[in-house]
Write a structure and sequence with these properties.
Elements: E1 10-12, E2 18-23, H1 26-32, E3 36-40, H2 49-76, H3 80-95, H4 103-114, H5 120-127, H6 138-149, H7 155-172, H8 185-197, H9 208-228, H10 247-256, H11 261-274, H12 279-290, H13 294-298, E4 305-306, E5 317-320, E6 335-338, H14 341-356
Antiparallel strand pairs: 1-2, 2-3, 4-5, 5-6
Helix pairs in contact: 1-2, 2-11, 3-5, 6-9, 7-8, 7-9, 11-12, 12-14
Length: 378
């Protein structure tokens, strides 16, 4: 049976080498002019441990590069109010000292001869500073909070603010495009949903205390703006009194949290390289797409897999149920699960191999591991 390892962002070149190529985030692309992070890999054997380790290292380098540029972009990116104030300052500098022309004529001459020298905001402010004044946004509130609290040089506190605003952008869009007067309850709901759905590098969700801490940071930013900025109409804070999940609910999610892709690839490569019996790789691939326990797959009979979907409206499935190799104590664990992707492909190849060996419906799918003693050697 041929063994193959799925590794993302890798392309084989004509000379036999492999190219790691992954698209950079849009903001990084605009800042650097480079659309992809690409490096020719040293290792040339995708099934080797050195190849998988190098791939994992390149993934970390890609993330470090993306994070570095994102941080530098944030450091230099102006909020709408800051950009407006800079445009006003530029307008005053351009009009200062103009003699013999009215302000309107001077502005007209400057705009006519400036070409692409000014951005669109500066051109609008030159024409009419009152009309061009932007709404006060979440990005402006963040700038004011950091300045007024004097925490700009506090790395730990700034990391907390940055982390909260990163999740906020994922939830409701760029903070510089969300005016405080437009905040609604739905923004708070989307924020909380994003926190609950987010998975960290280790595949685990945020702890409830982490969700509350990030929400408190965001809530403080908005409350500070409401207190110290004059608005034309009332502003509400949708990040207060949110219904956080219980710690027990999060623990249940932690138990079911999916494995990170990097770890999945490492384990697949490790099994492909080290397994003495090739069947173990098939078992692993079926486990990875079904979420079954090891014994639930290891003790399957041939009749427990329906690869044509004849019993399930055309969907290939695996039946977890009692058979002559495995008892089931809790009927709630009996279930039918879809087989997809690498798990389905591996199951089909293995079932064809077992059928060629003369295995019938009642025979073990994995005879090397299924034992009548109810123990699993996998």
């Amino acid at each position: 049976m041929a063994l193959s390892v799925e590794i993302k962002h890798v392309t084989k070149l004509k000379n036999g080498s492999y190219l790691f190529r992954r698209r950079l985030p849009a903001k990084v692309f605009r800042a650097t002019g480079h659309e992809f992070f690409e490096i020719t890999m040293r290792s040339k054997d995708p099934s080797s441990e050195s190849f998988v380790k190098e791939h994992a290292l390149l993934l970390r380098e890609w993330k470090a590069l993306s994070d570095t540029y994102k941080a530098s972009i944030k450091a230099t990116e102006l909020s709408p109010q800051q950009a407006y104030n800079e445009a006003l300052k530029k307008r005053a500098e351009l009009l200062n000292g103009v003699v013999g022309l009215s302000e309107a004529d001077a502005v007209s001459v400057i705009l006519e001869h400036s070409g692409d020298q000014f951005d669109s905001l500066t051109r609008r402010v030159l024409a009419d500073p009152k009309v061009a004044k932007p709404a006060y946004t979440l990005a402006d509130a963040r700038v004011k909070y950091v300045k007024d609290k004097g925490i700009g040089s506090n790395i730990k506190k700034m990391q907390r603010i940055d982390r909260a605003f990163d999740r906020l952008e994922e939830a409701i869009g760029p903070p510089k495009e969300i005016a405080l007067v437009d905040l609604k309850k739905k923004h708070g709901e989307k924020w909380l949903d994003t926190l609950k759905d987010y998975r960290q590098a280790n595949g685990q969700p945020y702890a409830v205390d982490t969700m509350k801490r990030m929400t408190n940071d965001l809530k403080a930013v908005v409350n500070h703006a409401i207190t110290f900025v004059d608005f034309d109409k009332p502003v509400s804070n949708p990040f207060t009194k949110l219904p956080f999940p219980s710690k027990e609910q999060i623990k249940a999610v932690e138990r079911k949290a999916s494995m990170p892709d990097d770890m999945m690839h490492l384990i697949t490569a490790r099994i492909a390289q080290r397994a003495r019996v090739p069947d173990l790789l098939t078992i692993w691939k079926m486990l990875s797409v079904t979420g079954c326990r090891l014994s639930e797959v290891g003790f399957l009979q041939m009749k427990d897999i329906d690869l044509d979907g004849s019993e399930s409206e055309g969907i290939p499935v695996v039946h977890v149920r009692p058979n002559e190799f495995r008892r089931i104590k809790d009927l709630a664990t009996m279930r039918t699960l879809p087989l997809v992707g690498r798990g389905l492909e591996a199951a089909r190849q293995h079932a064809a191999k077992r059928a060629a060996e003369g295995a019938g419906p009642g025979d073990a799918l994995f005879p090397a591991y299924a034992k009548v003693t109810y123990h699993c050697a996998a």
